[in-house]
Predict the 3D structure of the following.
Amino acid sequence: MSGISQFTGGITILEITYIIASVLFVIGLKMLSHPLTARRGNTLAAFGMGFAIIATILFHKKDGEPIGNIPYILTAIAIGTAIGWVIAKKVRMTAMPQLVSFFNGMGGAAAALISMMEFPHVDPELIARSGMANGHVLAILLGLVIGTVSWAGSMIAFGKLDGWIGDMRIKAMKYVNLSILTVLIGFIVFIMTRNVQASAELTTYIYVMFAVAVIYGVLFVMPIGGADMPVVISLLNSFTGVAAAMGGFLYNNQAMLTGGILVGSAGTILTVLMCKAMNRSLLNVIVGVFGGGGKSNAAEAGTVKEISLSDAAVLLSYSKKVVIVPGYGLAVAQAQHICHELDKLLEEKGVEVKYAIHPVAGRMPGHMNVLLAEADVPYEQLIESDEINPDLPNTDVLIVIGANDVVNPAAEDDPSSPIYGMPIIKARDARNIIVMKRGMGKGYAAIENMLFFNNKTRMLFGDAKSTLQNLVNEIKNL
Amino acid sequence: MEQFSEFFLQHREAIFIVILSIFLGIEVISHVPAILHTPLMSGANAIHGVVIIGAIIVMGHAATTGSMILGFLAVVLGTLNVVGGFVVTDRMLEMFKKKK
């Protein structure tokens, strides 16, 4: 804060590097929002980060003391780099969402650890002057709480997406969560109003607070199921941003401050955009319990009708317009390549093939785009749901591959359905509908889908990849 | 009130940066096509790995064994966030580029 006295050459270089890093973060993020520049934007931001890290190690001084323990720091960075690199390179594309969640949790944990270590060392002069109720302490406490919640929540989200943690839905949950949140705020107020000489006297409370924050993070994500997971990851992402910014506040470090707040606000906007795509409010996502609801009206729905592979092959080959609606089932089965093969085959036969992409299909917004891009499906063939809906009545065949909730007409018909009001791909407007599914299980949001019982709908049961492979062979043999 | 104004004056630069960065973040993101939501989230995820700087500072001034261990852990986790985040984002975006 008293910058002038420590104004040496190294500090100047450090501060300039931080400015450069901040600018690179902003430009990188900006470039990330355009398809053509996205990859360079990412690289640019990575360089900014690299500069900031190197400059910190070389030039940072705290009360005139340079950074020590450098061999250990470099070892830690080497370990983190090796693990992070291997995980990031080896994980399957379908597991991307949980991976982002995992790395996000790591950042949150780092922020929480920093707070824990800094708390006992709050400047005694500052405490003597303004008591515990100062910005420094507040930043430490908020960094601890937000970072911990983000870490615990991300780990639960990771476990849920990876399938080894189930949903826990108890009605009273939101009251429990609200009370824990109140307790956490109570802790902050309690600590900041203590009359002590040194913050170290209160260290025990910090550990208790950490434990409570872990519980809150776990319970916060536990009841959130199904279709809301992307929103939660995005929200936790912005939490970690804010936690990092608290560190920036603590060290008067502009790179951390801008980087953290940038992610905090961008992440929040992204979260809101996702909520909008599902026509739900953020509050609803956080306190509401999603999925599991919805009347089970399968009984009155009648029966589903199946279609044979050869019938499906004929139907597709003699269509003019085919629309493919991909969902998570396509991702799980790793069927994106064979799916592209099918669309190429049909195009050769003069069929016009488009993909209808729902913004929240899969487990993350844009998940389908990433997958189909991997399979080299041309960008122009991917149409967003709003754009393709008016075209669907003129579509001969609509193929739903492993998607469910995003084509569920309950979103339009059934006010009692949890997804009521969510914009969907109006699959039932198409002339014929083929649904590829593993079985009659419900979608990720666990809601009955009346589309499957529609008169125009035919089911093609089986794993998406082998079914598509068989379909391709069948069409080739026609 | 006195406390508030002391707090405000002491941190006014940081508060300035925070408020402007909020607007910047909103502005930068708001026109992103849905196709890039996932990579963007992942890229933003990597950027908040900047928390590693705090971890390095804390580790760089750690004196006791306990704080050394915690600091070491913080640096490892921060690095995981940075490296994993950027590499995963690059991997996602690599697929967009191939066909161009």
Q: What stands out?
A: Chain A touches chain B through 119 residues (CB under 8 Å). Chain A has a mean pLDDT of 86.
